Amino acid sequence: MQDALSLWWNVNVRYDIPHVLWYNLPANDCAIVCRYLPEEVSAIVTMRDVAERAGVSVTTVSHVINETRPVSDALRERVLAAMNELGYQPNLLARGLRRGKTHTIGMIVPDSANPFFAEVARGIEDASFKHGYSLILCNSDGDLEKELFYTNVLIEKQVDGMIFVAAGVSTEHVQVLQKRNLPLVVVDRDVPHVTADTVLIDNAYGGWLATRHLIELGHRRIGCITGPSEVTPSAERVTGYRRALLEADIPVD
Q1: Which residues have a Cβ under 8 Å from the Cβ of 55 and sit 6 or more positions away?
Q2: What CATH number has the domain spanning 47-90?
Q3: Phi, psi (5° rounding) for residue 51?
């Protein structure tokens, strides 16, 4: 048992990390180690704990954290030192709720492993970080039920806005967002009968351009492989593909 405790202390394990070591200990040792954990380590550190360590009021700690009122440099240093010693982390969600803003953005895509969506998500994450926001990314896997589930999860997370790549033509999830007046941007796919800021690609022109390029290379038997027919990008690309063939007097098989 002493060896177990010595190992625990020698690696300077703190807070929620000790349980990693317990898996390698007999069950009875695990129970004893849990019992011997210092209260400071096992408990969540609060502003009251910081105030007591720094010898100031909870109000002063709050002003230092939230920068709501001027605090002398000496008091500020004491509070910051106490926060560092105790490992205090402000509750960003609670602070955001008080201020009416959490500085988080939710994003739902069909598949983040898809290179197109991966690149879009990376660009959005970079822009979000630059402006002091964090991004929560969810995969719908093209499943409407999963899409609605993550929509509700992100609402519960109190995100400040949503960026959305629809899995299909259903508007249920969008209606949920609009009822809550949550800012919404739809990307890549048009959602019928929904009024929202939308960022789209000219997929019809892309289909036409790709087909035209092959025609100019002398090809006449040109196939078109598309995604799900119920989403607008696929249908629009086929429209562009057909237009290019008709313009070149090539029959569509």
Answers
A1: 78
A2: 1.10.260.40
A3: -60, -45
